[in-house]
């Protein structure tokens, strides 16, 4: 079936491009699991970030959605920037690079740099960044890594607010969901800390 204005054989439709990014990310993250409760497959996180952008922020832009699916491949797998450019084009690769921490830095330095970089992110990268933080805030609230203390969880939640503060303003529903998720997280973790 060839729809009007359909893509020629071999070219990506928006959906095709997204599925290709998903298959790529699933393969690269294939041996990784998230640290949280139940150790879900890592790719679940990438899917959650893209799905939040589509469902909450109404993002249809294929570049943003592909970048969302791929957002942790540079940082957490052996994928290179050149490989992303080759496979998905420069705009997608750039967004992924914008939201990737530099390897080899201490955790505190990486966190400091994310705060510093947030106001300079492109709109696409800012959206991916906030959706990523929503997913992480929820994970730290409801299924944290077992070795994380309550204090570390609270520190993490407060830190995300500093990052998101620098790159919010592109999408009201997404910003609102972040605020809601953070409030819920702070409430639940604080109650746990009080032993309730
Ligand atoms: Zn992520």
Verbal overview:
With 196 residues, the chain is an all-alpha fold. It has a single domain, classed as Hypothetical protein af1432, CATH 1.10.3210.10. Helix content is 66%, strand content 0%. The chain is built from ten helices and no strands. It has helices at 14-28, 42-55, 62-70, 73-76, 81-88, 90-98, 107-117, 123-142, 150-167, 172-193. The protein is globular and about 60 Å long. It starts with 13 loop residues before the first helix and ends with a helix. The model has no long low-confidence stretch (mean pLDDT 93). It binds zinc ion. Zinc ion (ZN) binds next to loops. Zinc ion is lined by residues 45, 71-72, 132.
Helices and strands, with pairings:
Layout: H1 14-28, H2 42-55, H3 62-70, H4 73-76, H5 81-88, H6 90-98, H7 107-117, H8 123-142, H9 150-167, H10 172-193
The structure holds zinc ion.
Zinc ion binds at residues 45, 71-72, 132.
Report a brief summary of the structure.
By secondary structure, this protein is mainly alpha-helical.
Work out the number of β strands: 0
What is the overall shape? globular
Helix-strand category? mainly alpha
| Assigned CATH class | Mainly Alpha
Bound molecules: zinc ion
* First and last CA, distance: 59 Å
Query: Within the CATH hierarchy, at the fold level, what is the topology?
Result: Hypothetical protein af1432
Largest sheet, described in full?
A: none
H-E order: HHHHHHHHHH
Q: Look at the structure and name the CATH superfamily.
A: Hypothetical protein af1432
Percent of residues in β-strands: under 5%
Low-confidence spans: none
Tally of individual domains: 1
Number of helices: 10
> Radius of gyration from the CA trace?
17 Å
Helix content: 55-70%
Q: Can you name the CATH architecture?
A: Orthogonal Bundle
């Amino acid at each position: 079936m060839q729809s009007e204005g359909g893509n020629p054989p071999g070219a990506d439709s928006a959906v095709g491009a997204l599925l290709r990014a998903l298959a790529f990310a699933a393969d690269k993250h294939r041996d990784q699991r998230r640290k949280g409760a139940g150790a879900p497959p890592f790719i679940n996180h990438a899917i959650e970030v893209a799905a939040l952008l589509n469902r909450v922020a109404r993002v249809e832009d294929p570049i943003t959605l592909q970048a969302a699916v791929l957002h942790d491949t540079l940082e957490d797998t052996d994928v290179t920037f050149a490989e992303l450019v080759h496979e998905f084009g420069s705009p997608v690769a750039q967004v992924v690079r914008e939201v990737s921490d530099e390897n080899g830095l201490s955790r505190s330095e990486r966190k400091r740099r994310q705060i510093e970089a947030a106001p300079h992110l492109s709109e696409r990268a800012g959206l991916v960044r906030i959706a990523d933080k929503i997913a992480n805030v929820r994970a730290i609230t409801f299924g944290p890594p077992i070795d994380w203390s309550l204090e570390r969880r609270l520190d993490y939640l407060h830190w995300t607010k500093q990052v998101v503060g620098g790159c919010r303003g592109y999408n009201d529903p997404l910003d609102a969901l972040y605020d809601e998720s953070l409030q819920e997280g702070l409430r639940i973790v604080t109650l746990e800390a009080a032993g309730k």
